[in-house]
Design a protein that fits this description.
By secondary structure, this protein is α/β, with parallel strands linked by helices. The protein is built from nine helices and ten strands. The chain has a five-stranded mixed sheet, sandwiched between helices. Strands 8-7-6-9-10 form a five-stranded mixed sheet, sandwiched between helices. A hairpin with a 5-residue loop joins strand 1 and strand 2. The longest helix has 32 residues. The protein is globular and about 65 Å long. The structure holds 5'-O-[(R)-(carboxyoxy)(hydroxy)phosphoryl]adenosine (KG4) and zinc ion. The site of 5'-O-[(R)-(carboxyoxy)(hydroxy)phosphoryl]adenosine has 18 residues, from helix 4 and helix 5.
Length: 339
């Protein structure tokens, strides 16, 4: 029997500290410690995020190993998020991964966070039915910091063919939520209220942007003016119409995303469509894709693989391990990193 390949994955790019254990492509444990501290500030405070990562990282790794039922000696290699992300947050994960791997004489694997969101689709039970996209496919990668349409030709042959010129889709959700007085991160709350609302109640225009690119800053301003105008006339406007406002905001963001995705599919002739990143947890986006009448085969990850997680880091590390793409001792995080 060949030895199993067991990867410990570490994620710390933003405000979630994640540790996961993957054995031959199967997840044994995938734990995330969130950081409530940022809620009161309406966004992630980088210095507080780094400190929370420092407090969380050892207990999270320890709990992940226990949950997986393995000891440190069973680990084959350690994968960590090199970037993109907040430098202080990344430094905590990279310092931990480097010292842990060096103390145990284990190979180190560095992972691009945005590639990992996409490669999460190759985790054994990524979407619950074992179905995986075949190359080439298109992936709409939508998170708090990125909005991209990626042409995925192979695991590590990924080409960004469209992206946002300003705000990310996650920011469009979070900033709209902030305008409505909802706490950070507002995306999941808009999703929750939208379920009870009428998506056609209020109309917001769809921006006309060249090629396969996106823009969300005009939309955010439109939401701001809409709320200012209506609350001037009725101070309780938001409270009375919260569900309809959220449903209309979500409907518009999903429409902007889907129109570009349709254009990308037509342009490339590819109809295998995947989604990835935190916003792929959005039920409006998931339903719109599942109900598509475009002949698309869609790939939608389980919720735990949408928002930031270490399972996707371990999976990408595993694919790098298989091609012996190891990092050296000079490995260091990078706040900005290309796909
Ligand atoms: O991928 P992710 O966890 O972190 C980044 O790499 O940015 O994405 C976080 C983003 C936030 O903007 C959050 O509001 C959004 O994903 N998000 C959602 C939902 N769940 C998370 N947006 C809309 N609906 C959701 N259900
Ligand atoms: Zn992410």
């Amino acid at each position: 029997m060949p030895q199993p390949v067991i990867i410990l994955g570490i994620e710390s790019s933003c405000d979630d500290t994640g540790a996961a254990v993957l054995r031959d492509g199967k997840i044994l444990a995938n734990l995330v410690a969130g950081q409530k501290i940022h809620e009161q500030y309406g966004g992630v405070v980088p210095e507080l995020a780094s400190r929370a990562h420092q407090a969380n990282i050892i207990p999270v790794v320890d709990a992940a190993l226990k949950k997986a039922g393995i000891s440190k000696q069973d680990i084959t290699a350690v994968a960590y998020t090199k970037g993109p992300g907040l430098l202080g947050s990344l430094l905590v994960g990279s310092s931990f991964a480097k010292s842990f791997s060096s103390a145990l004489h284990l190979p180190l694997l560095e992972v691009n966070h945005m590639q990992a969101h996409i490669l999460a689709h190759f985790i054994d039970d990524a979407n619950g039915n074992g179905d995986k996209p075949a190359f080439p496919f298109l992936c709409l990668t939508v998170s708090g910091g990125h909005t991209q349409i990626v042409l995925v030709n192979d695991y590590f042959d990924l080409k960004v063919i469209g992206e946002t010129l300003d705000d990310a889709a996650g920011e469009a959700f979070d900033k709209s939520a902030k305008i409505l007085g909802l706490p950070y991160p507002g995306g999941p709350l808009i999703d929750k209220f939208a379920k009870e609302g009428n998506p056609q109640a209020y109309k917001f225009s769809i921006p006309k942007i060249d090629e396969l690119n996106f823009s969300f800053s005009g939309f955010k301003t439109a939401v701001l003016y809409f709320v200012q105008k209506n609350t001037a006339a009725d101070a309780d406007f938001i409270e009375k119409n919260k569900n309809d406002i959220c449903a209309s905001i979500q409907f518009t963001i999903v429409k902007i995303l889907l129109e570009k995705l349709k254009q990308a599919s037509l342009q490339t002739g590819i109809n295998q469509i995947a989604i990835a990143g935190g916003v792929s947890a959005n039920s409006g986006l998931r339903n719109a894709l599942l109900e598509n009448k475009l002949g698309w085969k869609v790939f939608i990850p389980k919720f735990e693989y949408c928002t930031d997680n270490a399972a996707m880091i371990a999976m990408t590390g595993y694919l790098k391990y298989l091609k012996s793409d190891f990092a050296d001792s000079k490995s260091a995080p990078m706040a900005r990193m290309k796909m």
